[in-house]
């Protein structure tokens, strides 16, 4: 019984314990905590929403007065931080919900455990009841047995007899007791297990609590951080706003000041505007009256102009009259000038030093000029300076055009009926051919002269009819050859005109009529080809022969029938160098003798002409004989003495310059005045003929009478003159 009592007590205490545990584990605490957390969560959410709304509002506000300033950058940074924090918060929320879920799971498990505990307890109660019933039964049995105890002494036997039954009952009850005890042990075992379970659930709860506390603190911290961030954001925002406001105020102030300035400006401008408006109105009135004014002005100007034109017209008339008079005067003056200059002029042209001159002391320059006087030339010969005075000296810098300028007047006088001779004199290589022929790019006197004649003739074409013909000949070893003929080898003779006029002509000398530069070029080319095919070494040959270009200009005045003939003789003389007495023999010596003879004859003729001697030795050479009528009378002669400037040629240069000076400084003889007067009757060469008659062969021409009558050059002439 004591044992049973003890068991009962234990059962009760256990039940108490269970109930305590239940009350303790009832989950109410956890639930409460969860609720609290949920409430807290809700509050945080609300706060977050509020913050977001605020942020939205801030964003919606127009950007500060200074977009792109550091504050907007800062606020962007802060916004970024905020979004980061929001992200963190969302994470924390996720964690919280996870924790909530775990708590829920734990609560569920706890409820399960409780249910199982309840079942166990119910089972235990049933068992207890069953046991207590059995205990009562046993007590009753014992009591009934005790009540039967007096007859036991004597009935001992019986009892003993019957005790087998009792014994059996006892053993049965003992067995039952045993069974009960086992059951109690079992129960105890169960209880122990449950206690253990309780223990573990306690531990779990404690762990969970700790976790919850941790999360709470975490949450608290996050919240605090968020609050701090928000605070700083708020501060930044306020600061930015304040700064922007301050700046705006400063700007406003400046704008106000500007405005004030503009206002004062406006005030000062107003009077100016008023005067401008007045001016404008005045101008408007003037413009309205302008057309009338203009018309009036135009009328008066027109009248003035008309008057002026009339005046000019009468002036012009007067001027024209004066001009004509001047023209006549000019002609007179020109003749006088030519007379003063002399009919024979000598100029020198010094060529530049060329590559052909070589190098070294032999090729150094020996010729100098006078800066103030262009008629002086200085030569340093064998260390001795010698000076010469000529009509003009051309330095190496002089161009073909410069030289031509000097001879231009001579050439145009051809059109007026004068005969002209231009000679190029000098040693071989001194530039004779360059001056007369020139190069294709830079032509010399020949081509320029013909070009000038063409243009002059063109100008007079309204009143005069001109024909220009060209012949080319050479004199080599005192033999005259036609360079334009079909048979250049044929010797030509110089004859007296059969008309008894005493004039000379060359029967068979080809004459080409030329009208353009093209024609001249063809003629030159033809002559050149003739010469090249005839002579193997043209250079040497040409340096030992005289080349003549004879241009004849025949004119007729259409209204009066007046005829003129002028002849231009352009002569590239043979080289004037003297051949050493030794060394030269045979043909070379003969050549040299011929050249010498003809050049000295030329010198003699010119000297005789200049000194107005009665006898001029024209017949001493073919050249002077051929040019007789171009050298005598009022003909004009120009001698271009070509000079090489280099040291090695000074002997020849000296000789050439001496020749030039001799030709030039010929003293005028005693018969001067008579002869001079006679030579200046410029009308002498003009012949009067009835207009539009067939031209007669010019009495003064020495060549085959007139163009068209020569039979030999027919084929070539046809080529050059398709119209003839
Ligand atoms: P010439 O006919 O007297 O023998 P050239 O006329 O053949 O001499 O001249 C000899 C060389 O000198 C040629 O090559 C020529 O081109 C050149 N020459 C002559 N005079 C001049 C000049 N004024 N300017 C340039 N080169 C010249
Ligand atoms: Mg030459």
From TrEMBL:
Binding site for ATP: 426-433
PROSITE patterns in UniProt: KINESIN_MOTOR_1, KINESIN_MOTOR_2
Kinesin motor domain ranges (all copies): 343-666
Membrane topology: Peripheral membrane protein
Compositional bias (Polar residues): 704-713
Molecular function GO labels: ATP binding; microtubule binding; microtubule motor activity
rRNA-binding among keywords: no
Biased composition (Basic residues): 715-724
GO biological process: microtubule-based movement
Protein location: Cell junction, Adherens junction; Cytoplasm, Cytoskeleton, Microtubule organizing center, Centrosome; Cytoplasmic vesicle membrane
Primary location group: other
A cellular-component GO term for this protein: microtubule
Coiled coil: 4-130, 177-243, 302-329
Source domain of life: Eukaryota
Region (Disordered): 685-724
UniProt KW keywords: ATP-binding, Cell junction, Coiled coil, Cytoplasm, Cytoplasmic vesicle, Cytoskeleton, Membrane, Microtubule, Motor protein, Nucleotide-binding, Phosphoprotein
Family: Belongs to the TRAFAC class myosin-kinesin ATPase superfamily. Kinesin family.
The protein's role, per its UniProt record: Minus-end microtubule-dependent motor protein. Involved in apically targeted transport. Required for zonula adherens maintenance.
Protein name per the record: Kinesin-like protein
Organism: Cercocebus atys
Protein's gene: KIFC3
